[in-house]
Amino acid sequence: MNLFANFRQFSLFVAICMAIFVLNFYLEFRNYEKFKSSPYSFIKANLLFSDKRQGKSGDYYILQFKSDKFIFYTRSKDLPKCSSCEVGVITKNLKFKDYITSRFFLPSFKISDFDEPKSLTNRLKESIINQHTSTKIQELYSALYLATPISKELRQNVTNWGIAHIIAISGFHLSVIFIFIFFISNFTIKPLQDRYFPYINLRFYISLILFILMGFYLYILDFTPSFLRSYIMGVVGFLLLSRGLKVFSFGNLILSILIGLAFSVELLFSIGFYFSCFGVYFIFLYIYHFGNKEDLSSYKRIFIHTLALEIFVFLAMNIPVYYFFPTVSWYQLSVIPLAYVFIIFYPLSLFLHLIGCGGIFDEWVLKFIEFAPSQGRANVDLWQFIAYNILALLAIYKKQIMILLALLGLFVYIFALI
C-alpha cells in the first residue's frame, strides 16, 4: 500500500508543508531584522575551527564560531585562546540570503574569553582530541563522530580518496550504527524474550528505542543536514513499514525532503542536504528500474545487484560532486571497497574511543589519509550541472536515461584524468 490514497491527499500534505515553510521563512526574516537592528553586536559562541592563512600583509586566521542560532566565520590576526568566546561583530553588511543559510561571514573587532559550562558536544570533542596527538587525526575523528569542520588540507586528502561522504555524517553512518546496535541488542535480549515476554514484538521496540537514541545524537550534532535527512527518512520508513505501507518509493523521498525543508529553511541552501537527497534518489532509481523481488532469493544475484548499485551511484554522483569539488584522482575508484571496510572500522573505532583507546590506529590511518595525491580537475559548468539534474529527474521514465547518467559520469571522470 502507498501512504497517500490519491493525488488530493498528497497535494494537501504538500500544501501543509509549504505553509509551515513560509511561516518559518517569515520568522527567519524577523530574526534577521532583529539581528541587524544594531550595526554591531556581541555574540556568545564556541570556537569550532581555526585555519591559518598567508596574506599580503602577513599571516592571519580564519575562525569558525557556533552560536545558539547559527555558525559564522570571521578573520583575526591572532589566534584566540578561548574555546567559549564573546565575539564583537559588524552586522551592517550582512544580507538576508546569507543569514538564512545559517553559515556566513562577519567582520569582527573584539574576541574575548567567555566563561560558561561546557556543552555535552564540547566535552565529547575534548575526549576525542585527548586520545590523539596528530592535529589531522583529531580533526578526522571529530568530524567522523561530531560533524565538526575540517581543515583545507584534510578536506583535500579525503577528496583525493573520494571518501568525503564517508567522513561527513550521513545516512550511511546512521545505518551502520543502527544495524550494529540492533544486532547486538537482538542477540542479547532474544533469549530473555523467548522465556519471559514472547508476546512482545522485540524488533519493533528495539527499533523504536534506537530511533529515540539517534534523535538524541542528531541533537548533539546540531541537526547536521545530511544526518537530518537520513533520520527523517529512517523514521518515515519505520512508520511505513510498521503499518504495512510501501517504503522504497520516490514519494517517500519527497515526503522526507518536504518535512525537512518545512521545519529547517536553511536546508534549502545546504550542499550536504542536496548530496544526501540525490544519493538516495539514485539508489531508488536503480531499485525502480532493476529491482526484482525474485533476485532476493539468490545470494549471487544479491551480490551482483549490490556491486552494480555501488558502481552506478558512484558514477551518477560524479557530475554533481565535481561541480562543487572538482578534484579527481584514480584513487577515488577505491571508494567502493573502502565503504565495506568502513562498516567494520566505524563501530570498532567508536568502541575504542568509548574505552579511551581511540589512538591505536593513528599511525596507519594518517599514512592512509595522506597517501593519495590529486591527479586532475573536472570542469563542470553551471549549465551542465543544471542540465544533468534535469536529466536525472527524467531518468524515472526511461531506463536508458539512467544508464546515460552513469556513462556521462564515467566520461567526465576519465576525461579529467587523461
From TrEMBL:
Keywords: Cell membrane, Membrane, Transmembrane, Transmembrane helix. It comes from the Bacteria. It holds the Pfam family Competence. It is found in: Cell membrane. InterPro entries: ComEC_N (IPR004477), Competence_DNA_uptake (IPR052159). The keyword Protease does not apply. This is ComEC/Rec2 family competence protein. It comes from Campylobacter porcelli.
